[in-house]
UniProtKB/TrEMBL annotation:
Keywords of the record: Aminotransferase, Transferase
Coiled coil: none
Protein name: Aminotransferase
Domain of life according to the entry: Archaea
Keyword Transferase: yes
MF terms in GO: pyridoxal phosphate binding; transaminase activity
Gene3D superfamilies noted in UniProt: Aspartate Aminotransferase, domain 1 (3.90.1150.10), Type I PLP-dependent aspartate aminotransferase-like (Major domain) (3.40.640.10)
SUPFAM superfamilies in the record: PLP-dependent transferases
Domain Aminotransferase class I/classII large positions: 53-352
Keyword Transferase: yes
Length: 372
């Protein structure tokens, strides 16, 4: 398998656990095991009595039932549990694609969403997002133009990392129709589902809308439980699920029993967890609006409308990697340069899903003040 280094993950591996102040985190506020166990009577005793044998390959029936409850047209048999969203992406790409196929990917994107198809031998066309008039945009006419007779898969992500963009309901429906008309399978990365800043903008999962689609979910982002390493794929397409499960026999086979138990518990009380995380997000967004207004001569942004990440732009001729490196060395604050997303413009990712964001933003603010 010939695949390039994962820029984002290599960058985070180098700095995430050495930089003392993370301002680029993509996830929401996390919880402890004790926090989760307090949700339900007897859960502490049940967790301690859990046997550490093999688990069911597609995931425990109880966990798949909780996951399917987050959908309308999906039942528990339509869900396969994975070791995080990364495994879902890896397997789905290998199941759906062959060398020579054409793939369209919404960009910027998490690198595996375009790098894995390239490693398979696919031709990948970027569907670039454009920033204008204080917002991010995607042009459906450009999507039409990118489609070829050999287009097999469209990869989309909403809510979007890193921009905080969210498709409109009308564009979302039109994408499903376009792909249906051209027999294109949709891989829909929905890992930030549930933390739309305005609940009225929440979209139907793509897996609910089409049998030629899959939705990717994970415990890491909206729920802040990355340490569980639990993700899933949801799809009505039985043939795809059979191939996915067979391929998984060559990766993780099955998942961690303790993680599955805690994930089921968290999903049962997901509304409460997400409500708490949205409260943090809204408070932090208020602070960020004031911050970017105050420092518009140094950094600008198109305010996100969903998720827990933003993609501000540096107003300077300084290369963004140099800027982020100097911020880290001078203040201990870690920002994520847009170059890890293969973006040539001077953008960087900023995360605002954690309680400590205001304090860390204050350190970044002191750095910007020192440049005045």
């Amino acid at each position: 398998m010939d695949i390039r280094d994962f820029r984002l993950e290599r960058y985070m591996a180098q700095h995430e656990f050495s930089a003392p102040f993370l301002l680029c985190s993509s996830d929401c506020e996390t919880l402890s095991i004790q926090d989760l166990l307090t949700f339900e009577d007897q859960s502490y005793e049940n967790f301690l009595n859990l046997k550490l044998g093999y688990t069911e390959a597609p995931g425990s029936p109880e966990l798949r039932e909780e996951i399917s409850a987050w959908y309308n047209a999906i039942d528990s048999n339509d869900v396969i549990v994975t070791s995080g969203a990364e495994e879902t992406i890896f397997i789905a790409m290998h199941v759906l694609l062959r060398s020579g196929d054409h793939v369209i990917v919404q960009m910027p994107a998490y690198q595996s969403l375009h790098e894995i198809p390239k490693s398979i031998g696919c031709h990948v066309s970027p569907w670039h997002m454009v920033e204008k008039n204080g917002a991010w945009h995607l042009d459906l006419e450009i999507l039409h133009d990118l489609i070829t007779p050999n287009t097999k898969v469209l990869v989309i992500n909403s809510p979007h990392n890193p921009t905080g963009y969210q498709f409109s309901a009308s564009d979302w429906a039109e994408i499903e129709k376009i792909c249906s008309d051209h027999s294109i399978f949709i891989i829909s990365d929905e890992v930030y589902r549930g933390i739309e800043h305005n609940p009225d903008t929440a979209l139907n999962p793509m897996a609910d809308m089409s049998e030629s689609a899959l939705s990717i979910g994970v415990m890491s982002k909206s729920l802040g439980l990355a340490g569980l390493r639990i993700g899933w794929v949801a799809s009505q397409n039985e043939e795809f699920r059979k191939k996915f499960q067979a391929f998984k026999d060559y990766t993780t086979i099955c998942n961690s029993g303790p993680s599955e138990y805690l994930a089921r518990l968290a999903l049962k009380y997901k509304d409460q967890i997400i409500k708490n995380n949205l409260s943090i997000i809204h408070e932090n967004m208020d602070i960020l609006h004031t911050f970017f207004k105050s420092y518009a001569d140094q950094v600008t942004w198109s305010a996100p409308i969903a998720g827990s990440t933003a993609f501000p732009r540096l107003v300077s001729d300084t290369p963004v990697e140099t800027f982020c490196d100097k911020v880290r060395k001078d203040t201990g604050v870690l920002l994520l340069p847009g170059t890890v997303f293969h973006v040539e413009t001077p953008h960087f990712r900023l995360g605002y899903g954690r309680k400590n964001m205001p304090d860390i933003l204050g350190r970044f603010e002191q750095y910007l003040q020192s440049r005045i």
